[in-house]
Every structure is written in C-alpha cells, then in structure tokens.
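Practice problem. Given the sequence and the SMILES for pyridoxal-5'-phosphate, write out the predicted structure.
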Amino acid sequence: MCKVNFDKIVERRKNETNSVKWNYGFDGNALKENQIPMWVADMDFEAAEDIGKAIIEYIKTYNSYGYFTFDGYHQIVIDWCQKRYNWNIKKEWISFTQGLVQGFSCAIASLAKQGENVILLTPTYYPMFNAIKMQGCQVVESNLLYNEDTLSFTIDYEDIAKKASDKNTTVALIGNPQNPTGRLYSIEEMSKLADILIENNVKIICDDIHCDIIVDKSKKYIPLASIEKYSEHTISMNAPSKTFNLAGLKISNIIIKNEKIRNAFAFECERFCVNTNILSLIACSTAYSKCEYWLDEVVEYIWNNYLYVKNYLENSILKDYIKPVPLEGSYLLFLDNITLMKEFNMSVSNLKIFYTNKCNLSLDDGIAFGETGKSFMRLNLATSRHFIEVAMDNMLSGFNKIKK
Ligand SMILES: Cc1ncc(COP(=O)(O)O)c(C=O)c1O
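Answer key:
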C-alpha cells in the first residue's frame, strides 16, 4: 500500500526554498509564468517524513552545531551497501564529500597529473567536463553509440580501447546509471569496459549517484567496485542526495578500497578542507536506516510517470517526431528529436526555442552533455503527475503550433 502522496504539489516557486529549478530556467533566465521547469536533477516531492522529524528532534533536543564525528554514520553506509547491493565495505574505505562534483575534483586530482587525459563517455553529466578541466587535465570523449531504431545508447569498446591505449590517458570517469541517457550498464558491459581500462593502466572513477533509482525492474545495478577484480582500481561514489531528494544538504559517500588511492584522495580532501555538516548526517542516517519504503514508492511513481510520457508520445501525433530513450535508471528521460529537427529544419537553438517558447517548458539542452546530445532534450520525471500531464499537453500544443 502506498504511504506517500507524491501527487501532492509542493510549492517551490519564488518562496524560501530558493529553488534553482523553480526560479530559473536551464538557460539561466527567470522562469516565465506557468513555465514548467523539468531540468535540474532534484525532485519536486517532499522528502520522507521521518527525515524532517529527525532533524526537528535534533534541534529540539540539542540545538547544538559544534564540530562532530562521523562515527555512527560509517556503519549506516556499510549497512546500506550490504543491504542494497550485497557489497561488503569496510569503515576505513569510506569518506565523505559535499556532493559528488566536489568528489570528482578530489578524485581526478588524486589520480591524474596536470595535462593527462580523462575519458568521458558522452553525452554525459556536464559538470564532469569542468571538473576535469579545472584540474588542468584534458577531456577525451568517447561517444556512446546510438541506435536510432532501438533508441539505445551503448559503449563503443573499440574507441575506448584506442583512447585508453594513449599513454597520456590515466583516468576514466563513468556514470552508471548514466545521466542523461538513463542507461544502466549491466555488470557485463561495465566489466568489459573496466577490463580494457585496467589493461591500459587507466583508473576508474564511478559516479553511481543514481544507483538506487533503478526504475526498470528487469535490470539490476551491481557496483563495479563490488567485484574483487576491479575493486583496487576504482573510486566509487554514491550518495543519498538523488535517492532521497537531499541534494541541497550536500553529502556523498566515497568508497575506496585501494589504500594508496585512498591516501591520495584524503590528501586532496584535506588540501581543500572538504567536510560536511551535522544536519546532513542526521538526514542521511535517517534516510538509509528508516526510509527505504519511501524509495521503493518513489521509484514506482517515477516509473509510472515514465510510462505516461512514453504512452503519450507513442499514441499521439508526436510519435514520429519525439521519441523517449528507454529509461532504466535515474529519473531523467532523454528525448530523441532527430526527426523533429529534420522535418522542421530546426537547428539546435531552434529546438531549444521550440521547447521554451512553444511548449512553455524548461528542459536541459542535450548539447550541454556533449556534441552527441545535440538532437536530444533531457526531461526530469521526478515531479507530481499533474505537471507531467500539463507538460505533455504543452508539448502537443507546441507541436500543433509549428505543424504545417
Ligand atoms: C550523474 C550525476 N553526478 C553528480 C551529480 C551531482 O552531484 P552532487 O550534487 O552530489 O554534487 C548529478 C546531479 O544531477 C548527477 O546527475
């Protein structure tokens, strides 16, 4: 039985939540009236009730915000990894950063020297490009292969092998589930990729921030680092932020088995005084220890939102023009606009104008994720059904406005 009402609309427009999503569009312009923001990857849902209760209880009981230890929190992360992924990790393998993006910088700095190459599978989460460049390293893109018939993205192993064999290539930063494509690479795909990388002495940073949100029940997430053979070559990153809608609390778990890499990572964290805050620890411990039911329900809700969008697209005039890339993990749906652009002679900026002005939506431009994403738009499904329904009607009426 459903305990959580995800249909409830949580007002975040122009109020003290200071929501990025509900004040600005992806382009940085102020959101227009009635424009629906479906870009930045947070959820519009209230967090699990127990999380708020635990924070309030702490404030009522202690109202104390001095320096604190992580002692209890390690065990919570250990238990979560064990329960969710059957992954046995040790306390000393775990450290914490204020979000994965901060973790990217520390991880890259600890594994690569300035000027070295870092591989990305593109299209990919755009802050990865910046994190690499900020460390003085070079981005080497390996484009995912896109099949227009099955609408699916797969790894180009030949290309990876070529790029990994360059002596200047030392690191690969890989997201799984993949943002923006929604792909969950199977453990076979990940292993094949890792074998190539390791053979070429390339270390792997796994961004697994979306790993708790596997919406396609026929798929299973297995952390690469949970496989003995790969564990010493990998920095693994996950977090409660996407899983439980806690991104503004800024906490993520970094798991490193290899002692040498761990020390190098710790050095970088110390260099930049990386830390987090006491309220994040309370929120995250509560989420991991008491709120799995919420996660199960939100995954189901997102899946149903996905099915709604998919059915809408497939059963309307939009069918031949806008196509949903099959969603396996995360709540981010990549929309293929290849035919739309061809038929209506749209450039990348026309595509953006279509969604912004004609459909009154704010989505992420696919091109922001790399050149391979240029004919796509990314739509965030983690919102109440009401907005999903309005968004789809907007898309249809936007299309009717441009139809010849
Ligand atoms: C793949 C991926 N990695 C990292 C992040 C951001 O992580 P954080 O907010 O923990 O820095 C996001 C947010 O959307 C993401 O999609």
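Check your answer against the key. The CA atoms of residues 124 and 180 lie 6 Å apart.
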